[in-house]
Amino acid sequence: MKATTILAGLLSSVTLFAGVAGAADLSIVSGDTGNGLEFLRGQLNRFEEHTGHTVTIVPMPSSTTDQFGQYRLWLAAGNTDIDVYQTDVIWAPQLADQFLDLTEAAADVVDEHFPAIIESQTVDGRLVALPAFTDAPALYYRTDLLEKYGKDVPTTWAELEATAAEVMEAERAAGNADMWGFVFQGNAYEGLTCDALEWVMSNGGGQIVEPDGTISINNPRAAAAIERAAGWVGTIAPEGVLAYMEEESRGVWQLGNAVFMRNWPYAYSLGNGADSAIAGNFDVAPLPMGDGEGARSAATLGGWNVAVSKYSQNPDAAIELALFLSSAEVQKERAISQSNLPTIQALYDDADIAEAQPIIPRWKEVFENSVPRPSAPTKTDYNEVSSLFWGAVHETLSGNGSAAENLEILEIDLEDLRGNGW
Fold first, then answer.
1. Which part of the chain has CATH 3.40.190.10?
2. Residue 85: beta bridge partners?
3. C-alpha span between 17 and 10 (Å, rounded)
4. Model pTM?
């Protein structure tokens, strides 16, 4: 049974579910505002109309850090007031013990989603959240500059380095002293974990911690990938990239002062806005790959999911709601009206979506190369794992020790952390 069949059945009769278990009063948390909140309420109204259930939205702070903190407090207390949680891609694995296993409920639709997204929400064989929409970064490139200098879109990091340096120098010689070759997220925060995971994975260096819990980061391919990135700082990337997050990178790019940028899909529409110096003069491609055995393009998964609290007093109805919000129909409507990227592969070939949001088909190949952060194997220790990783990478980028030295220390720290839990 496909997601379309589930939704068709869901919407066919008010009594389809209510006749089995009776109408239920449900609650779902949301930090959305504006159009996002309006969209969610509209979908919940449809669900209510055709099932007889009622769903209340419990508002959350817009800060995802604050949201996660509140989730942990509620779940630790066994709160029965919240039935469905909306979770960041890295949260559900950290809260897995507090969520119901959705493996059986989603058995007929799970194969429709990108495999890496399902992997990211699976902990010890339990599917703890269903994907609602997703996110992954791409390589943004200046079409006008590549055409001007007769360059192809790079498919390897070596090609990117060479093209970035050549075009940057030529543009500076032509009068743009502020031009840089490549901007990315180099600050010491979660964003650097995402960037550096891509560098390492694309060079055959593994996922930091593998799905089976093996700590793999201390290896020559990972070290080589991070050393390469360190070589960008002050050459094709500004020294200030060590303090860049997404918006700082976009600022340089959107002013027309970078040949390439690594960033998330949100920057696409903004780059084509009325105030953009590069509107109509850029496109996106999968991120480059490294060298040698195991090299591949890699894009870190972002996105949001829906999980069902194990403390819900109406678990069957809550699972129905989770299936509905992750269904193909809801994802299609969300893509068209909110430009959120679907997790269901077939929707990237949907003509209605392509017409309404041309950006979305461009991301299909990106997601085919997606890779989850190691939140599933590290569970509640993920935040500390990520902090240790981005700290080691930032030290290397800053010239404080070699990648090999810093990864050796990182491995020791991760082994100590694993000894306390995972």
1. 3-128+302-371, 138-300+375-419
2. 307
3. 8
4. 0.88
- For residue 132, report the phi and psi dihedrals to the nearest 5 degrees: -105, -50
Q: Per-residue confidence at 64, pLDDT binned at 50, 70, 90? A: confident
Quickly tell me which residue has 């009594």 as its tokens. 15
- Of 225, 246, 208, 217, the closest CA to residue 382 belongs to 208
| Mean per-residue pLDDT of the chain | 93
Distance CA 413, CA 279 (A): 45
* Whether 382 contacts 193, CB under 8 Å: no
Alpha carbon 207 to chain centroid distance? 15
Say how far apart CA 221 and CA 295 lie, in whole Å: 10
The mean per-residue pLDDT over the stretch 409-421 comes to 91
- What is the CB neighbour count within 10 angstroms for residue 213? 13
Give the integer Cα–Cα distance in Å for 294 and 287: 15
Give the fold, CATH level 3, of 138-300+375-419: D-Maltodextrin-Binding Protein; domain 2 (3.40.190)
Q: How far apart are CA 380 and CA 389, in angstroms?
A: 16
Distance CA 33, CA 230 (A): 39
Q: What's the topology of domain 3-128+302-371? A: D-Maltodextrin-Binding Protein; domain 2 (3.40.190)
